[in-house]
């Protein structure tokens, strides 16, 4: 699985992520253990990046990316992901 991290997102993340951080692409719709949102009717439509300095066996699917991040995702998340993934940053989102 591959994701293109656009230049604006790379610039933003450069100051947030340490070289030792593991980065998980996790659902943020109430269905993930990292989600702080209550259950919603839009499962699979919201994601978040979770930073940890240790591994998580539930997030072990590697995601190739052009920012050289140690980026992984989980089985549940991969259900909603396909080809042509991109991460951008504009207007603080």
For this entry, give a set of tags:
four-stranded mixed sheet, 7 strands, globular, alpha/beta, about 90 residues, about 30% strand, about 15% helix, single chain, Hypothetical Protein Aq_1857, Chain: A, three-stranded parallel sheet
Write up what this structure looks like.
- The structure is a single chain.
- It is globular and about 30 Å long.
- It is 13% helix and 28% strand.
- The two termini are 23 Å apart.
- The protein is an alpha/beta fold.
- The protein has a single domain, classed as Hypothetical Protein Aq_1857, Chain: A.
- The protein contains two helices and seven strands; from the N terminus they run βαβββββαβ.
- The strands form two sheets. A four-stranded mixed sheet has the order 3-2-6-4. A three-stranded parallel sheet has the order 5-1-7.
